[in-house]
Structure formats: structure tokens, C-alpha cells
Amino acid sequence: MEAEKIIAQLESILGGDHVRTDDASRTQFAEDLYFSGPSPLAVVAPRSIEETQEAIGACTNAGIALLPRGGGLSYTGGYVQREEDAVPAVVLDTRRLDRIVDVNPDNMTVTVEAGCTWESVMTATAEHGLRATMFGPSTGRYSTIGGSLSNNCMFFGSAKTGTAADAVLGLEVVSADGAVVVTGSGAIKNSVPFFRNNGPDMTGLFLNDAGGLGIKVAATLRLEKIPAGQATASFSFASFETLIPAIRAIGQSGLASECLGVGPAPLGETAVNAPSLHVVCEGWTQQIADAQLAAVVEMIGAAGTAIDPVVPNFIRGNPFSFVQSPLDAKGRMQIWTHGVFPLGRVTDAYDGFMSVLRDQHTDMTALDIDASMSFACAGQAMMVEPVLYWHGQAKKLHHSGMTPVENPAPEDADAEHRDSRVRIIRDAFAAMMDNLGAAHMQYGRFYSYASVTNDETVSLLRNVKRAMDPDNLVNPGALGL
Questions:
Q1: Does residue 272 carry a pLDDT above 70?
Q2: Dihedral, 145, 148, 154, 155 alpha carbons, nearest 10
Q3: What is the rounded distance in angstroms from the CA atom of residue 357 to the CA atom of residue 72?
Q4: DSSP letter string over 333-353?
Q5: Are residue 387 and residue 269 in the same domain, yes or no?
Q6: Would you tell me how many other CB atoms lie within 10 Å of the CB of residue 411?
Q7: Do residue 257 and residue 362 come from a single domain?
Q8: Residue 467 domain-assigned?
Q9: Average pLDDT over residues 228-254
Q10: Longest dimension (CA), the chain
Q11: What mean pLDDT comes out for the span 420-430?
């Protein structure tokens, strides 16, 4: 009866069309690209910040938890409760909060609501010859600003300017009681959002928090002028052992806007498909971009062989359109497990991932599980990311979460065994990365923030959580809190 009462109240706030209680919706929104959890009571989609405040207040006053969700492309349980920790909850689908609030060329800022996609932000700012300093992940056609800032992300521009969190100047966050907290200079009376570091960095508190400290409803991002010059190059390497020093040197130099190393699947077949490195350099003039690329080429030297830069040219020519499905080209499941490492530990990270894969080789071969690996620069850090591929038990999100899959590959009798083995491999990856002190994006519930972070830091974070969410109703369990 209490559930019926809160659902009726939410319908009065949002309208019946934006409160979904059917089984199909509840099941789909209890899954991400990897994890599944208990179905929520409902899925709600507010249209405005005011509606969001009312919906949050109605739920928390009734003791109902809120699970914030953006584009839904988490693969670390970001908004998926664990069965053993589950409480009655409502999923807050933020995608209708999609207004571009303000593009300010004078202040070099853009303020947007949390449900905007990176593609929509790029389109709005490009009209002014501007872009966000990190202007989106590869899934930017679908990924939202709020989801990305809750989990952090990287790709376009990251080698030079870092991750999505580094582009943020200020936030608007709704606390558990429905109040809006403003961070950065936007919180100053008579001011505007233009300067993040006004006093303590309150903005940073709410970034990479898996939505556990409050519901992000708007953000202001730093803009930069779109450079006039662009130069691309690709290189083939005999092995990862020769690729890693090259990509590390480029990361240390700061010359590239994107620097991506990718390997073959399955790993080890380098004789057929060697690992490759793809670089984009930019400058205010084409001459500057060309000079930076020439320096990169000199840095790589004889270790890499220049090849046609098809990959960086396509990615830059078709931003956000080169990733269309969470399934791979063969219709297989694919799952990413990454760590963020200092440049000096990239070789250790590669060795650690390869050690896990060697230990699992016999079972992977028997179950037809493939693996590849990629490296990507994010300022003075490197993301190392093995990817596993297998014919498994796909969820509805795999077929409809991005571009619909018309003819998904059929499952077979070994699908459950493959899924089980993939879980074992991912857990081994996570344990290895804990031993190397890896950082992560998408902490959610898979990567263990609370257990690997020192006690004093976690204690402080728990106090912040209690201040924002005293009854632990905003994405409870995220970050291990």
C-alpha cells in the first residue's frame, strides 16, 4: 500500500506518462551492461529541476531510495543495487533534463542540464567555434553529462586536458531533502559560474561519486576554441612491449589531444594483427599541429611503423558515431575492466593483466572467450583496459540501449558457463589492480573504493554522505558507503 501511495504521489508531480511501473521497464532499469539487480518500484523521468526536487523529496520522505541513471551505459553497477543490500527504490531517469541552459563565449563556459548528451553539448558549442576541454567519451551520442560526471569518463581531448571531471567549473546538486546545492563561483551572491576554485573545491566532492552524495541536475563546463589545425598518425608495433614506451613518452610530452593504443583479439596473435597506436595532434594553426605530430613521430622513432591513419581520421571525422552498440561486430558480449595508472606503472599494469589472462587461458580457450587490450592517455595518467568478448546471456540493454540490434547472435548452452568465467576473470583483474594501487572511473559497486582507500579519507567521506543524505537513500551502496 505504501508503494502505491508513493507512486500516486510521483504521478501527480511528474504526470502518469513519466512514472513507469510495467515489468519490462522495471527489469530493464535494474540492469546495466554487466550487472543485474532487484527491480525498482518505478522508473521516473522529471522534466525540470523543480520536478526533480519534488520527486526526490517525496521519495526520501517516504523512506524510498533514489537510484540516479543517465544514459545507462554503466558496467560497474553504478545504479544497480546488489541483491543482498537492496532497499525499496525508484530509478531516477535524468534524460529529460536535457536543456542547454547557456553558452557564454565571453566567459568560455557552457551550462547544461544533467540529461544532455555530450553530442548535444558539442553541437551547441560548435556553433560558436567552441567545445568543452574534454568534449566527450566514445559513447557521447548516448552518455549524459550527469552520468559521466558521476562516474568520470575520458576520450576526446583527454591526452592533453584530462577527464570529464577536469572540465567542470561548477554543479547544481539536489540533496536527499530536495534542496539544491550550488558549487563553484555560481554559489556566490551576484556571481555566475566561471571559476571552480572559489574557496574549498566543493565541486570536486560531487564528481566521481557514483551519484551517491546527491543528484546532479546541472553542470557548467570549461570551453576552449576549436583549434584550426589537426594532424593524425597511426603506427604498428611488433608487440605491446615496444608500444608501451612510445605511448608513455607521448603522454609525458603533452603533445597529443588523443593517444590510443589498441591490441588484437585474441591477445597474442600479434603476427596476424599487431598492436597499433593512434594519435591526434592539434594547434591554433595547421603548421603548429604538423610540428607537434613531427615531434611525436621523432619520439616513436624506429619502434613503430607508420600506417594509414584510418582510425584517428574516422574517429575525428565521425565523433560519437564509431561506437553504435554495446555488442561487438560479431554480436558478442563485450565488457571493459580498466585501471588508471601513473605513467611509470603502465608496464606493471600490462604485465598484471597478462598474468591473469595467462592463468585463465585454458578455460578461455575452451569457452571461446577472447580478449584485447587498449591504452589511453588522460593527462599525466594512463588508462589500461582489457576487454573480454564472449557469446553470453545478453540483456535488453545490449539490444536497445544504443542503436537497436536487429539480428542478435543466438545464445548457446555454454552461455552461462562463459558468463561465470568472465566474472572470475574480472574479479582477478580487480584484485590485481588493488595490489598495484590503481585508480578507477565508474567506481559504482564493482571497483572497491571504500576498502582500498585509507580509513581517514573514507571516514571524512562518510560524514559528507551523512550531511547530504542522512538516511542513506541516495544511491545507497555506491562507493561502498
A1: no
A2: -50
A3: 28
A4: EEEE--EEEEGGGHHHHHHHH
A5: yes
A6: 14
A7: yes
A8: no
A9: 96
A10: 71
A11: 97
